[in-house]
Amino acid sequence: MALDSKIPKGPLADKWTNHKNTINLVNPANKRLIDVIVVGTGLAGGSAAATLAELGYNVKAFCFQDSPRRAHSIAAQGGINAAKNYQGDGDSTYRLFYDTVKGGDYRSREANVYRLAEVSANIIDQCVAQGVPFAREYGGLLDNRSFGGVLVSRTFYAAGQTGQQLLLGAYSAMNRQIGRGKIKMYNRHEMLDVVIVDGKARGIITRNLVTGEIERHSAHAVVLGTGGYGNVFFLSTNAMGSNVTAAWKAHKRGAYFANPCYTQIHPTCIPVSGDHQSKLTLMSESLRNDGRIWVPKHKKDVEAIRAGKLKPTQLAEEDRDYYLERRYPAFGNLVPRDVASRAAKERCDAGYGVNATGEAVYLDFASAFMRYGKEQAHVKGLDENDEALVKQLGQEVVKTKYGNLFQMYEKIVDQNPYETPMMIYPAVHYTMGGVWVDYNLQTTVPGLYCIGEANFSDHGANRLGASALMQGLADGYFVLPYTIGDYLADDIRTGPIPTDTPEFETAEKEVRANIEHLINNNGTKSVDHFHKRLGKIMWNKCGMARNAQDLKSAITEIAELRAEFWKEVRVPGTADEFNEELAKASRVADFLELGELFAKDALLREESAGGHFREEYQTPEGEAMRRKEFQFVSAWEYKGEPKDAVLHKEDLVYENIEVKERSYK
Amino acid sequence: MNLTLKIWRQKNANDKGKMVDYKINDVSPDMSFLEMLDVLNDQLINEGDEPVAFDHDCREGICGMCSLYINGEAHGPDRGITTCQLHMRKFKDGDTIYIEPFRAKAFPVIKDLVVDRSAFDRIQHAGGFISVNTSGNTIDANAIPVNKHDADDAFSAATCIGCGACVATCKNSSAMLFVGAKVSQFALLPQGKVEATDRVLNMVKQMDDEGFGNCTNTGACEVECPKGISLENIARMNSEYIKASLKG
Amino acid sequence: MSGILNSSIGRKFAMALSALFLMFFILQHFAINILSVFSPDLFNEVSHFMGTNPLVQFALQPVLIFGVVFHFVMGFILEIKNTKARQISYAKNNGAANSTWMSRNMIWSGGFILVFLIIHFIDFWIPELNVKYVQGDMSGQLPNGDFRYYEELVHKFVPIWRVALYCLGFVFLSLHLLHGFDSAFQSVGANNKYTRGIKGLGKAYAILIPLGFIFIAVFHHFNH
Q: Measured between beta carbons, which residues in chain C are less than 8 angstroms from residue B153?
């Protein structure tokens, strides 16, 4: 099947408006006759479910957590971008579009990104109307801050808990519809398959995680907003339950999976402390607004610090290497995430890491304390030369901006970041790749839609900070609810979809067989054992820097590990009860397939772009080397085993933006 | 560290349940509390036992999924954190640690340490929202300036993660800190004032119907709340409710 | 408005209102009693006025009785309901980590106060009713023509057991007020910039007023 991205004709700025004006709509009376399933209740799924219900569709929403409010969007810290230009610093829709395409290393679709930038301003209006308490200035108007990879301040935020506030906004919109009976909410339910009837997605099979019951749910369309697959690395900043299962099952039922190798490794996470580690914690990118990243200039200082003989605060300015400021004077500490992560890895690989494992760099707020403190002292008419006072005043300012992050750091590391610089190291954070969708956010399976992080669409090879929230809400509030109408307009006379058909029967049977296999396997090793081993392979061979040899061995190793998993995994308990090990086992089984496709995709892409860095393809200065012949989306079609997946290319055409060397120097 | 754990085990909602003792050795002080339980579970699985079920997800203190009543306190002895942020350095070698589910009639146990907190969701369905359609056709976000003090207070109330520690820790199993936070967030913002009357009446009614106890102002909830939600929110809800009752 | 007493907040609001009323009553009661230390004559006059004025006797007194009964009955109802809200108690609960003993034990301090009040009623109030309304002697005078109030008061505090009981009763009242004072303000929705002041005032009230009552009892015991 040829890939048709269905990008509307016409000038870039008019595409979305024209498209909305010409697509089919479903009249309000008929919407009542149509059911839509939304899987996942994060920013994308939650906002989509609420909006579809408001429009009049009957929505069934599913999440594996105990409440929709717990979806992992809640952990997003820093902010949400919008081209509001409230700061009057030259921002515009085009500039947001440009920054996003450039930030994604020219590997995203122009039309989608432009639409994203276009609706971004609406998101802020919408959220404020819903009661999302964004940070404000003393005049009562909204405040902004700056994020990596851009030269304007367009990020709206709510302290370090923006994702939480936005998700609670979407959740409140859902609550209103749940209260009205327009959304039927299924908590603690995991989707285990998509049901295809006559080539169209017509339902899902779920497992009730409390009772173990396998259920059939039908609808006229199915929307997946199930998030990313960063947990294929075992250690990531994702929630423990974040998984690829819904997306992967969709892939197995015919949805192409695009760019699986594009993974964002976030530069500012708390370093790994030991083998017991179950997850990694992100320190918001917003910290790079005020924190300066450095390692010692000299090896002897590194050794002294590691041995505990020297404190970082004792090291003189001239003995410190602010390597981001040195290498990228224009953007400094605010280079995009992929660039910052690789630079940290480069320094640590060269032996300058500052903790016992050699995998940490400093994020230092000392100069921010003084800068803010001086400002405060001046405003309050106090002595600007009193260093202790200035420092204290500055710390108070920083506390109001990032207090929760500093507290989080202190609780985990047991060091006071107001007194000593934070230690950070890159960690897997976000996956730009995902289910392939067209301009309407429809996958290659008719009636199956995919939104938010779960799809591949808007961020290319690297996502800019504060853009994930923007995309999730844009898809859910403003894009999908329109485009899905075009498809559903044909379904007004279909009537309810029965669940007693052979298609549902077969899908349920397969799900049951899978579960029974896992439960009755009686192997010798726990699910986590396999997950951790998979994570090690992924991190070592498909991590921040990749090469052909490693990727090839990763492919074989993952395939072997998968075989071993099915033979040796042990899942205690039974299928018809609350059984977390069983839920984990079926998620890890899918990661074990995805991991191989990931490596295969990375091997194919013989270039470096954004989050994908191939050691063979770098400039003499060690920067990513993009190659014209790889200016395409790789969309993989499932053919049984990951190794047999068939590649389909969607060429990326840039008509409104000049593809340039991506430079932040 | 070597520890003795006394953990509540309950097969399902209908099982009677009991405290069971476990020994765990070589616990690193840098582990989080849940990582310690992961290690215990791995040990149990390898011994052919059933692992202990407990709720958790983000493991960075924001999703509100994790719970646990540890040594007689919700989210354990540390302050301003959830159980997933509690680290073993807070305990000493040889300690005995009691681990129980959050207890309240409105939070029935599902299994072991996992409880059903959907009562919170139902309270929110009753009025935890501002009735505005998500069409995006609203006024410009800066059209209504909001006094920074009110905006900050609304934000502080809105940081509630809905974990239920307030209910678990309250001697009366009262949910007023949770509901007060939600009522306050909207009552403080101009957008939320329009339906403030109905909101507080409906949410409080649902709260009462769920079987939560009444507040006697012990203040325990505020102390144990991982997000430091202030008692002021309960006071605000009280006055909002009384005003609404007199009006309505 | 209807059914407000069926709601949790309505009930706690009513508890708080009755508490505020009772606290005002105690203050007034104290103000009169302390007169006995400084001026027996003034004490006699005020007592006579309070004991015979129809407005006080037939309007304020029933309200007071209603307030007292309501506060106790509602207190017990709420306690029972609150206990029911948790059916299995914790194997280990560290209440001291997050709240005061007083706040967690209002039912006990309140219960002891009730016991004290019953004794107090039998001891002071029922004899009063007997003299005034059964025997119909509204004169408030002793056979010698002096007012009887001061004499009776002093006489009551002669036995040490009554003084001890009195002291114990007021210790419990103090414990009750140490939580109850600012709790009442919180319940009626007053938690704002004055809260710190209210808390301070509450502490002072909860300690000084009961201490004052105890002082009166002890003073008369040793000075009769």
A: none
